[in-house]
Every structure is written in C-alpha cells, then in structure tokens.
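Ticket opened by: R.M.
Priority: normal
Category: complex prediction / small molecule

The reporter submitted a protein together with pyridoxal-5'-phosphate and asked that the result be attached to this ticket for the collaborator who will pick it up next week. Submitted input follows.
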Amino acid sequence: MSAPDTRGYFGDFGGRYVPEVLIAALDELERAMMAAFADPAFWAEYHEVLRDFVGRPSPIYRCERYAADVSSVPLVMKREDTNHTGAHKINNTVGQALLARRMGKRRLLAETGAGQHGVATATVGAKLGLPVDVYMGVRDIERQALNVDVMRLLGAQVHAVASGTQTLKDATNEAFRVWAQRVEDTFYVIGSVVGAHPYPFMVREFQKVIGIEARRQTLERYGRLPSDVIACVGGGSNAMGIFSGFVDDRDVKFWGVEAGGKGVDGDEHAASLRAGSIGVLHGSRSYLLQSAEGQVRETHSISAGLDYPGVGPEHAFFKESGRATYVDITDAQAVEAFHAFARCEGILPALESAHAIGFARELAAQRGADDLILVNLSGRGDKDIGRC
Amino acid sequence: MSAPDTRGYFGDFGGRYVPEVLIAALDELERAMMAAFADPAFWAEYHEVLRDFVGRPSPIYRCERYAADVSSVPLVMKREDTNHTGAHKINNTVGQALLARRMGKRRLLAETGAGQHGVATATVGAKLGLPVDVYMGVRDIERQALNVDVMRLLGAQVHAVASGTQTLKDATNEAFRVWAQRVEDTFYVIGSVVGAHPYPFMVREFQKVIGIEARRQTLERYGRLPSDVIACVGGGSNAMGIFSGFVDDRDVKFWGVEAGGKGVDGDEHAASLRAGSIGVLHGSRSYLLQSAEGQVRETHSISAGLDYPGVGPEHAFFKESGRATYVDITDAQAVEAFHAFARCEGILPALESAHAIGFARELAAQRGADDLILVNLSGRGDKDIGRC
Amino acid sequence: MLEDAFERARGEKRMAFIPYVMAGDPDLETTEAILLALSDAGADVIELGVPYSDPLADGPTIAAAGQRALRSATHLREVLALASRCRERCPPIVLFTYYNPVYQFGVERFAREAAAAGVAGAIVPDVALDESAELRAALQAQGLTMPLLVAPSTPHPRAARIVDAATGFVYVVSRLGVTGTGNAPDFAPLRRQLASLRELTDKPLAVGFGLSSPQDVRNLGMLADGVVVGSALIDAYAGARAQEAATRVRQFVAPLIAACFLVSP
Amino acid sequence: MLEDAFERARGEKRMAFIPYVMAGDPDLETTEAILLALSDAGADVIELGVPYSDPLADGPTIAAAGQRALRSATHLREVLALASRCRERCPPIVLFTYYNPVYQFGVERFAREAAAAGVAGAIVPDVALDESAELRAALQAQGLTMPLLVAPSTPHPRAARIVDAATGFVYVVSRLGVTGTGNAPDFAPLRRQLASLRELTDKPLAVGFGLSSPQDVRNLGMLADGVVVGSALIDAYAGARAQEAATRVRQFVAPLIAACFLVSP
Ligand SMILES: Cc1ncc(COP(=O)(O)O)c(C=O)c1O
Ligand SMILES: Cc1ncc(COP(=O)(O)O)c(C=O)c1O
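Result attached by the on-call engineer:
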C-alpha cells in the first residue's frame, strides 16, 4: 500500500487546502480512518457489505466481438456495472458510511454531478439509517432528473446549488461549505479520489477492491497479468481503484482516459491531465483546467461523470512519474463506442466507461494474442439512454 | 429434478395446445433441450456466461431495518436485481440463446410486456451475434418507452403489436404467429414458465439456478434452510426458479404472490391462481383469468411484469397439490412496500418484486427468530421510477 | 354429411369449396345472410369461426373479424344457435374454434349441443393430434367429425398418424404461418405434400391458409379434394352488413367456385 | 502598518473596525469609491477580496459578489493595481484571496508585487497553518503579514501553533461554517475562546464571519482587538455603483464603528 506522506502528498500533489474550520475534522477523519484500516473487523464488515449488498466480486468478462475485427488480444472487462446501483461509486460510499457509523457521525453529506455518487451515498445512508443530504448543481438536477428521483425515493434530501457553473464543481464547493457548518455531527462522503487529505487516499483504498479482485481474477482465468489496464478518469476513483491493484506490477501499463469533449485543442473538454495545469482545487494540489488568472474553467463532456475540471492528486503524481499515461477520447468517439459495444456485447456501458472502451479498441489494434487488455467498465449506461 | 410427464403435464396442467405447424419445432426443441441438459459442456458454458456476463452468483442479503419493527425473523433477499440487465429474466435468456446457437438457429424471437424479457433477449442476442425480433403491445411500448430504447440500442427490432389488448397477452399471440412463419431458422425465446411444453419445464430449469444458489447460500450463512420462500408470480418464472431449489425440502413453505391490482374481488387485478379458473392459454392448460365464455380477460396491475392473465402450469400444479400457497398484494400495498423498502434498505425493488416484499412483511409478523424468510428480489426498480 | 359433400364434388370432377366465415362479424344477422349466400352460390362445406380473444393461429384479417364479433357478444352459445337456425338451408357446417371456449363450455356438453345444432364437426387449431384424444372421442360419440391439420413442417411419420386420426377430412395447411392473405403458398412443395398424403389416406384432403384467388385454386392442380378460403373472403365483405355483405360474398366466391371446376387433372 | 492600526484603536479604547470589500464588485470604480468612503468613515484596516471562481469558505453573499466581480474581469492583477492606486488614501489593506490565483500568479511574484502595491498582507482562507509555510515565508521576505485563522473547531494545542505563526493579527472565526449573515455566532463560547487565545498571545485578535450589527459588535465585549464585517456590508451596497454605493457604505458602517467604541471593558 503506497500511502501519501504524512501531509497527504503524493510527490508534489495532494495536501490539504481547506479552511481552518475543517482541519480538525480532517484530522479526526484521518485518525479514525487509520484505526479502521488497522482493524480487521472493519474490513470484515466492509467486505461483507460489498458481498451481500453490492454483489461483489464483480465478474471479469472477455469480449467476444467488440474488437475481434482489429485484434486477437483478449479484451477483458472488469464489470463494475453489475454492482448494486450500477457503478463503482458504491464501493467507496460503503466504506465511508461504515467509517462514519464507527465514528458516531449522525448524518451523511455528499456532492454529486451525474448523480451516481449521490445515489450511492443515499443508498448506503438508507441501509444504515443515516440521513443523507446531497448537493447538486441546478443544471445537473435538470440534466439528471432520474437520479434525483432515485435519491429522493431513497429518502435523501437533494439540495439545488445555484451558484457558479451550477454543476459538480460548485456542488462540491457547497458541500464543503455545509460541512464546515455541521462538521461535528456530519460525515462528508466525497465521491472520488479528490479533496483534501485523507480523502484521495481513503477513497482509493475503498476502490482498491476493484484492482485486487481483477488481478486475482485475471491470474486465475488467464494465468497471467494484463499487459494494459485502462480506465476512464473523471475525478479518478475508478481508475485509481483498478490501477492500485497492479501498482507493484511494473510491467503492467496504465492508461487513464479523460474526456476529450469536442477536442482538447479547444475549450470544451474536461481533460485536466492532458490539457490542464497544476493548481489547487477542492482541497488539494493537482492538475486542473483553469484560466491564466487561476480561475477554474467551465468544462464540457457529454458524460456528466467526467465533466469536472480537477483530478485526483495521485493521478497527477502518476502522470509526472510516468507510471500511467493519460489520453483522451472525444464525445463523438465515446458515443460511437457506446453504440458499438452495446450491439457487439449486449452491455450498455456508462458514457464515462465508454471513453475507456473507445480507447481500448484503439489500443487493441496495437496488441496481440500474448497481451491482455483489462478495462474497467465502471458503470452501466442506463442513465445515459436518450443522451446519445 | 421433477420433470413433467412425457406430454408435458405437471399433474393436470401443461401440455401443448398449439397449432400443428409448431409441433415439429417443439419436438425439435425438446430433443435438443434434453440433449443439452444431458451434456455437461452445455451447462459449463451456461454457468460461465452466468458468472462472467450476468454476474452470478447473485448475493443473499439480510435486511436490517425493513421488518425489524414487526419481527425478529431473519428476512433474507435473494438479489436477482444485481444481475446484468437488472432482473432474473436473463438467466433464462442466456440458457435459451445458448441452446438456440447449439441448434444452429439464426435468429431469436421474443414477446415482452414490461420490456424486461425483451431487453434480456436483446442483450443475449447482441452478445452472441444473433439478430433479435421483439414483439410488444402498442400500449406497453408507450408505457415502457425506456426499455424500447434499450432494446433498440442493443440492436433488436421492436415490433409494435396493435391487436387485442395491445399488451403482453397479444404480444405473445403475435410472437407465436411469427414463429409459425419462421419456425425453421428462428428460436422463440419465451420469457416465463408458460407456453407449450417444453417451455415451462425448460424455463424453470434455466431459472433453477436462483434456488440452487439460494439454498446453498442460506445453509452456508445461517446453517439452516428457510422456513418460507416468497416470490412474486406473473408468469411464474422467478418463483419457480427459487422454489425449485427447495422443492424436495418438504418443510420449506412456498408463497407465490400475485398482483391483486385494485382488489381480487373486482375485475382489475392479475391474480390468475387466486381468482382465475382452469383453461388453456398460450399453449398450456393452467389457471387463467377469463370470462364465463372462455374469453381471456383483460388484466390490471401497476406492475407491468405481473400484468398477465395466465400463469405457468407448474404453479397450477403446486396450487392443486398444496405445495405452494398463493396470495395477493394490491397495487397500493406494493407501492407502499416499494417506498418502505427503498428507504429502509437502500434498494429500489422492481414493482413486481415489491409484491413479494410487501407480503414478506405480513408474514414476518407471524414468524420468529428461529424461522427464516427468503424472498426472491426478482429485479431492480429503476424501471418503475416515476410510476409510483 | 361431410363425406357426402366431398363425394359429390369428386363426382363432379371438382374440388369442394369450403368458405370460412367468422360468426357474428359484425353481427349474427350478417353472418346468417352470408351463410345463405354461400349456400346458394354452391359452397360444399362451411367453416364457421367461433370468435376468440386469443386466436394465435390467425393472421390480422381473421383476428380482426374475431374482435368485431366479440364486440357483438358472439360466443360459442350464440354460434351454436346460429348454426342450428341455418342447418336446413346450408351445406354441412364445421365449427372452427379455439380450445378454450370449448373447454369452458365443457367438452361433453359442446359435443352434445353441437350435434343438436346439426353441426358436422369441429376444427380446433390449437388442439393438434397429441391433445386431441378427449375431444375427438367426445365428438365421435355424438357422430361429429374432427378434422386435424397437417402442416408443411409436419414430419412424414407424424402426418401418417394425423391422417389416421382425422375424421371428416384432413386439413392441409398450405404454408408455414397463420391464416391470412399476405404471402401465397409455395405450390410446388405443397403439391408434393398433397401427393404424399394421398398415398397415406383416402380421406378428403382440404387445403387452406393463404388461398385467395382463382389462380391459387388452380395451382393446386386437383391434387386436393377441397379448398378453404377464409381471410380473402372476409376482406371481401368487411365493412358491409346483411344483404350488402351477402351480395359481395356471392360476387367474390363465384370465380373461386368456378376455379374448383376449371382445373383439369 | 497593521500593528499600528490595532495599536491606535487599542489606545482609543476601542476595537479596530475591519470592513471586507470584494474588489471589482460590480466594477473597480465602485470599489475605489467604497474604499475611500471606508477610509473617511474611520476603518482601521480594509480586507480587499480577490474574486475567485470557487470560494469555498464564503457564503452566498460574498460568493455572489465574487461572481459579479469576475464578470467585470477583475483578477489578482487588477486588484493589486487598485490597491496601489488607493494606498495613499486608505488605511492598511489586507488582501483576502484564495490560494489558486496566487499560485498561478506565482507565490514569489505575488509577494513582491503586493509589497510594491503597498499592501499590508494577505489572508488566504484555504491555506491553513499546515500549508502556509512557503507563502508565509515569501510574504515575510517582502515585509508582508499573513494573518491565520482560528476556528471554533480548532483544538487548543493547534490554536497555540496558529497564533504563533500568524503575523499581523489572528483571524478568529466566530462560528462554524462560512462567511455570511445567515446565522449569528454564539457569543458565550466565542468569548471563552477569545479569552483563551488572549492567554496565548499578544497579537491582535480580529473576529470575523457572521457579524452584521452593532449588537454583534457589542456582544464581543471588548475581548477582541478587531471586528471584521463583510457580507453585511456587501449586502448594504449591493446593486449600487460608485458614489451611490459609497454613500450606502458610509451610512452602514457608522453605527458599527460607533459600536466598536461603545463597549466598556
Ligand atoms: C460510471 C462512472 N464512471 C466513472 C465516473 C468518473 O468518476 P471517477 O473518475 O472518480 O471514477 C463516474 C462518475 O460519476 C461514473 O458514474
Ligand atoms: C423483475 C420482475 N419480476 C417478476 C416478473 C414476473 O415474471 P415471472 O413471474 O415470470 O417471474 C417480471 C416480468 O417482467 C420482472 O421483470
């Protein structure tokens, strides 16, 4: 387990850029997290909930048709889409909610963009009997009305955030603000490997189950490790989750696929690592999309879950160290992959995951039967029907 | 394995009431099915697809809060909602599609009501590269537009059926008619334990995995068998699937929950076993809702998947023999259970499954800590948002 | 009665003409007028359809006719009464009914009341050989026939058992699928099948499903003993009532009946 | 400069009055007029907000002011120029800026240009003690102060380290949460905290977040050395421009400044 340094830095990235009012809460969280991580009973409970409630392990599935015309490489999907609530997000909310209960917190708080993390938090909150408040931009509430309904059915309060871009970025600001007010009894469940230390580390540890399972499954089934692991990168949690299972396997190449939107040469994309620069957002230093003056830019992606100007600090570290390579797939390519994959494999991928799948086909053309490409199919695409 | 007799009868129920043009196809199917069932390689392939593609085994999950106020009985859900495509239906379509491929059939044909079986068939067809035609009533196409989109994204042709009630019953008639025309190269994938022999038997065998897994899981986790097994009954496949895992455990009580609609005393319900009479529909003799003159009645249920006037013949046999007890839950009760379950457990059940869940709470009040109630949570409720 | 009808046609070197009419479409009065018209025109046997909610052997035309008939509250009881009313003025009537209405009526009772109504027999398209024993016995006990269907997909050994069991005549389905005029049969294989059935039995062979024109009739090449025309006939009078419907029926069947003669062996 | 301002206020047996103004809201001309009005009215120190897209320590009022200011293209460079323009006519100016604009500007460059603009220091709400070393050193090298914040949630040992590291003054956050007038602080615990901080340091203690009325000011009971008023002030001039805004500001701050005196020790 490669942890960040004591101040929460992965190399130059990470840290804790938050108002003083939150520092004590982050310290308390860090202490509780370390205690929980060292407690086998905590992990036992986490794994039991993942098994019985989430339905883990998620399978790995070898595609039969999607890239068969361009390559003989085994193309294997890690099926996070089969999780309860339909994406990897729930691995993390289970972990954080169990930690919240262990810490005696009374309520959960979450930001959400596409609504997937909001749904995953509302879900776990309902199960554990913890009230949940979700902050969501007004524009996202309009774009993702179905997930709003789901959260409400699960008993969560969904609060509309009308400030700034009215999307995930500002919902996150608002969640921080609300947390600052309620920091004593409220646990802030962050949805990706972003935020102030210890969030990027903690969320990674809760998503690592993806990589650990996938490594074991790949070895069991194919008797070897993948040559390449591919995942889409929004905040970066599903990517970090699968990468971290293979981080010590130095020959396994990591590919993070960002949202190229209408092209990374223009302004309408969300490719923080590919086309951004270093800065501080939502509590940590990493890459982000910003103006020359340090104002955070509005982003664009057809996939709401990737439509975020920042990225987790450990990805910035992986980029700098060369451990992972970051590429992008445009809206149009993602939509094409979505359709092709649905028709060839009978699986509707989330538009986020369709970015990884689109790139996988490109990479497959350069790989052969001795290689093995593992793709994190981070979620199901039901939420995206009618949007492409 | 309790098979029907050679003519496809479970006691007095079942048989093969279809036009002569289909008899040879049913004979061919029966022979191919028996050969496949006797072939370990077939089952190995079936189980591999269930594992890698569907994500089986589905977990069992013990509710913590839903009925805790009325009973200390362990209330355990078999989580078919975590399957790929979100319901038990896919267990069956995987089996039938593999059989179709084995038989050298070139196309799949399916009827659908709510669209779940249509989606499950389209899914497996896409995966195996077999074109799929789905027949669906005009009214259902309107009511279940989302699933129509999904089927089309998966490459299936959805055909609107404008005759009769324009719902599942007539879509089934139409599928039979189309099959009669294309019987040589087309495999008709029926979506429940209904239809002419060998369908009720075959579909049960493909759904039996639910019961086999659940029995093993219950024993492993609780060291005992359930006292009661509950499932909703539309055509009856999810119920037969879970019941058949326990059929030789004579102490395990079976409860089939039909759609009580606006009340079984009136006309607006779909409770064939509770309130119907014996007759012949869609190829087999069973209970059905019909007029004194033998015209099949229009039915009503808030849950599209239960809105069917017939029921599988083996259920009729279980009713007559007393092996299972059939009860009903009204629309209003199902909606209440849907909401309560979502808020207490963080799981949105399909409205179909909500019937089983609603009854489970009633039964729980009569059971204690030494008992164990197992409920088949046949599908997820995402499709039902906005309908209740 | 049925045997006589086929015998007479054979004697006249023609195929028997067997029109299909849906009882009660759009009302019983119209059906009665049509029956009399068919009788006048020279029909040898009449298939009288019993409306059913779920006619899965029928294409759109007959299914829609059944829906209209149900709207006029025509059920098995009403159809039997109609048959009884027309018995003196009509050629032999064979009911064409799905099984469920019969089952609800009661199989024995059905046979009894059908016999009392003077009906010649019953064709039940969803009761193939395998499920036919009980109903066949009940009908036979009342002196009624039960023609069975043979389809293009029926394997030869099974066809042999079917023709054995069939009474009255053997209903030879001309092509895969359901009733309806959409796609015409492929006559070459149909003729081969008729020839091979002919080797199995002396019972009359009546061909149906998808025949709509005099040319279709001629294409049978006298290999059959009878020709059933249903959907095309219904199309011909659809929308009309009573005498207007009867007139249209008369016009429509005349060339078909002529075609039954025209064919040279 | 800052020390002098607090000294003078202390000499006059009053708390220093520290208004917060968002630069460029709605334009720089207005801000300039407000700064001069505040100066005339007797403000001791001015917090000058640098607009930022993601002000997560700010409530709706200041966040909205920042949005308006961004619409007038006000960024760090423009704010420094404004400060420079006003330096002769104003009390000491402390910038209130989030870290990212500073980081993009360059930390060293920021310190240099801020000093050149005559600014007294910078409050950076998202840089707490732990991340403050580099920025603090850069500012100090240019003779600038970096007040740090202490929150109600800050544990005592940490508060001791913060007051140690803070320069210019210690910014005591009056209550949990962000800036804004929504909920007033709970004064009893706030007074206890001020008393306990007083034991740790002689540096000036300025209280901010949520203070909006003379009564709030009086409630501090002279335990603080300074009072920051931001959101309430912005609310007071919101919608107005230039001299009209300045007039409203003057009216609004007069009773607050009076309240700074009124309290008896
Ligand atoms: C299915 C899916 N994949 C990926 C993402 C992107 O998040 P992350 O990069 O943290 O995995 C989201 C976010 O909502 C998502 O829903
Ligand atoms: C989730 C779910 N449960 C139950 C049913 C009812 O079918 P059956 O009784 O065959 O299980 C359906 C049918 O669509 C369904 O979608």
